[in-house]
Design a protein that fits this description.
GO terms for molecular function: 4 iron, 4 sulfur cluster binding; metal ion binding; phosphorelay sensor kinase activity; protein dimerization activity. Its main location: cytoplasm. It catalyses: ATP + protein L-histidine = ADP + protein N-phospho-L-histidine. By secondary structure, the chain is an alpha+beta fold. Among the domains are: 3-141, no CATH class; 274-433, Histidine kinase-like ATPase, C-terminal domain (Heat Shock Protein 90, 2-Layer Sandwich). It has 14 helices and five strands. The chain has a five-stranded mixed sheet with strand order 1-2-3-5-4, with helices on one face. α4 (104-114) runs antiparallel to α5 and α6 crosses α9 (307-328). The longest helix has 93 residues, at 143-235. The radius of gyration is 44 Å and the shape is rod-shaped. The two termini are 41 Å apart.
Length: 435
């Protein structure tokens, strides 16, 4: 929004605040003009001039005083200028036609709105007294008429005080509401900024986690296969060709996954296969890339599984197998997918070197311990609290499972292998039928 648009937005509510007041001023002015022209007077020309001066007074008010309405009771130069002009024009109007004094019903409240209380009282006395003095000096005014004029003046002053106080109260309330609305808009802007920042942080975390669970593990596989390839080029050409094919396949998968991460899509492995099929392929690839034996077991009838749950379980399996490859030194790995009525579970069990999960999670020892811990989630050591290495192992798995409303259990001991079990809830039939 430009500065001019912002100023216009602020002016509109202020105009609304003063609309009723301006209507009152217009009615008082029109009423005074009608009375001055309707009641017979010694000279109709004088009455016409008097009525014209009353109208000119309000034109001057519109030109000088109204722009200062934002600074109500601010004793501004516009207010003092308007007072001087009003005293002169109003005095002439009253001398020409006494009924012009009805304009005081508009003039006095205007002065109370434009000046602070003390200055307003002085201004009202001046605009009432000066015409009275000139009438007494220039015209023959009887004592009863003087008393009547004084009484009328007192009544008008009292009315002006009451009316202006009400107007000031309404204006103050409007200003307070406007201030609260401005504060609300500021808070909304702060909330929007925080939400955007939080969203950006969540997106960074998502990308980092996806990169760790897919790209980093794929590159690790390529490096491992490359090392094996060096020794096979001269001694075992068939194995070398097989590993070259695996390197190409893994690189292609990494490229596909990187594109899907950017597009926030589901893993490529789940694009044209069920979770069980994707896990079976993952285990077969693991077995082809390592010397360890690996077996996939499906327990129970496959139930409809939300895509988000499938993604979490696939990522957990990828993380576990990647760390078995890097750290466990395992001879055999079992991957089991189990379905129950209300939950689905993934278990990854290896017979590797194992580690102490309590020590790892309590110490948060970063990557160094991760290199030594081994097990199905040896990166639990490097990643559980791994600020040192920036790992996303056990910490990343727990975060994924927690977000899906599930639980993650880690069982391991030094020299005794490692077991990881992730359990996630499945929606009931009633929940699936609910639109």
């Amino acid at each position: 929004m430009t500065s001019d648009e912002h100023r216009d937005t602020e002016e509109r509510p202020r105009d609304a605040d003063f609309r009723d007041w301006l209507i009152f001023v217009a009615l008082a002015t029109v009423g005074t003009v009608v009375v001055v022209l309707a009641i017979p007077s010694p000279t109709m020309a004088g009455a016409a001039v008097s009525a014209a001066l009353v109208v000119v007074l309000q034109i001057v008010y519109w030109m000088l005083a109204r722009p200062s309405r934002a600074g109500i009771r601010d004793n501004s130069w516009q207010a003092w200028t308007y007072l001087a002009v009003s005293v002169v024009l109003f005095t002439v109007a009253v001398v020409l036609n006494p009924w012009a004094s009805l304009a005081l019903f508009a003039l006095c409240p205007e002065l109370f709105l434009m000046f602070r209380p003390t200055a307003a009282a002085i201004a009202v006395v001046a605009i009432n007294a000066v015409p009275l003095v000139f009438r007494i000096a220039l015209q023959s005014v009887s004592v009863p008429e003087v008393v009547q004029l004084i009484g009328t003046t007192v009544f008008i002053v009292a009315f002006s005080i009451f009316f202006s106080s009400r107007m000031t109260a309404v204006t103050a309330q409007s200003e307070e509401r406007r201030r609260l609305i401005d504060q609300l808009h500021e808070r909304e802007a702060e909330v929007a900024a925080l939400s955007a920042e939080r969203g950006a942080g969540a997106e960074r975390a998502r990308i980092a986690r996806e990169m760790h669970d897919t790209l980093a593990q794929g590159f690790t596989s390529i490096i491992t296969l490359g090392h094996a390839l060096e020794s096979e080029l001269d001694s075992d050409r068939d194995a070398a060709r097989r590993h070259i094919a695996l390197i190409t396949e893994t690189a292609q998968e990494n490229l596909t996954e990187s594109r899907r991460i950017i597009a926030a899509l589901s893993p490529a492995r789940l694009e044209d296969a069920s979770l069980a099929e994707a896990l079976q392929r993952l285990v077969a690839q693991f077995q082809a890339e390592t010397a360890a034996g690996a077996e996939f077991v499906l327990d129970g009838a496959v139930l409809p599984t939300p895509a988000g749950v499938e993604v979490v379980l696939l990522r957990v399996a990828q993380e576990c197998l990647a760390n078995v490859r890097r750290h466990a030194g395992a001879r055999h790995v079992d991957v089991m997918l189990s379905y129950a009525d209300d939950a689905v579970a993934l278990s990854v069990i290896d017979d590797g070197v194992g580690f102490d999960p309590d020590v790892v999670e309590r110490a948060g020892a970063g990557g160094a311990m991760g290199e030594r811990a081994g097990g199905a989630t040896a990166s639990a050591a490097g990643g559980a609290a791994g600020s040192a290495s920036g790992g996303y192992g056990l910490r990343g798995m727990r975060a994924r499972v927690d977000e899906a409303g599930g639980t993650l259990a880690v069982a391991s001991r030094a020299g005794g292998g490692t077991s990881i079990r992730a359990v996630l809830p499945l929606p009931s039939a009633a929940e699936e039928e609910t639109p």
